[in-house]
Write a structure and sequence with these properties.
Order of helices and strands: HH
Strand content: under 5%
Distance between the termini: 63 Å
Helix content: 55-70%
Number of strands: 0
Shape: rod-shaped
Largest sheet: none
Structural class: mainly alpha
Number of helices: 2
């Protein structure tokens, strides 16, 4: 196996991993930006932190 690991194959492997990473990032960003937003009366992070301090 290690005898077949030529520099060209290693470069191809790196390019394939980068392409998969970019594809997964694009899918994740698309899902994040197209998800439904919570209702307006949903408590925000600041509201929950304010209650925790008391």
């Amino acid at each position: 196996m290690l005898q077949n690991l030529t520099p060209e194959f290693f470069d191809l492997l790196i390019v394939v991993v980068i392409i998969f990473g970019i594809a997964f990032a694009v899918v994740r960003l698309y899902r994040d930006f197209t998800r439904p937003m919570p209702p307006e009366n949903y408590p925000s992070l600041e509201d929950t932190q304010e209650h925790d301090r008391h």
